Amino acid sequence: MKVAILTGGYPSSDNPSKSIFNKRAVDGIHKHAQVCVFHIRYWKPGRALLTKGKYDGIDTFILALPWIPVNIGWVNALNYRLWQILLQRLLKHDIGSFDVLHTIGMEFAPLGAHLNRKFGVKHVVQTIGSDLLIYLPKIESYFGLKKWVNNTACVICNSNFLEKVVKNRYPKMNSITLYRGTDLTKFKEQVKEEPIQLLFLGGFSNRKGSGFGSDLKGGESLKSIWAQVDERKLNVKLKIGGPNSTSDEQKSWRKGLKNPDAVELLGQLSPHDIPKLLSETHIVLIPSKSEGLPNVAVESLASGCLVIASKVGGIPEIVMENECGILLDPNDHVSWVESIVKCTENYSDFGQLTENGRTHVENHFDAEKYPLNLIETYNSI
Prior knowledge:
The chain is an alpha/beta fold.
């Protein structure tokens, strides 16, 4: 079987840490089938429209496509139409040799569907979370781009929650939930030393169009919550990582705390840093406003961490309430403060939750099973 992966999220020589989860999926598929990545990037002077090569042993076509950066409906429609035409011309000699085109990210569904319409290659699209919940409805409004549903055989969902959304919006569309999982040999339970360490890895990216700005992952809310926790003078340490976590704004917030030494700003982390960081962490905080199914939740439970998370999206599928962790309303800051205080002061009382979490991940979120499930899905359409 020959599989083409169409995505805008994939590592490159200038950004090797980008979308590492897509890279892991491609590596897994490569063990069972021939695979090539069609990596969409924005065009800029000096970057060829099409560059064929390899990235870490995987055939990779880098497609540099021009985009007019104006947030106006008809301009965005023009951008997508241009991308469809360019992809058709750039890939016309190659796309026909593939058995399956797997598009990652619903924002690219109209592109994959267009290639199916022109060349007949079987097309599946995968939803991650915000692509379906936030961005796709806007894209579908652009001059009939909703027609992607007519040229897509199946939507692969990262959580049952996302599959329910797909079934509600597109009742006739085939869909399936496949958990990406995590590498259980990298994320292991470790003995954790005092003082209690808490971790937030969502960062402060300003997700335009999400309605939440830089609070999509709950970072802004966490600052308000932690300011109240800080008043309790607990012997704990909070580490904050992710995009913009070392910005001047975050440094200023930290400086204004009564106990600034209790907070460490980590900045953007490499995926290779995460297993060790989680092995040292007691409690992971996931105060997201919207989610599909966050990988950090799976990795945290696999690492034996106690997880306190928002009861939104697909999070309850991994952080089973009062069995594997604690779920809270993301807007109920009082409950977040009390839960953080309770868990830090009585951490040893939550050993059964962390033990259950590791078992739950082993049973349902083993990354070794994911590529085989994908191949089975490809064969079924």
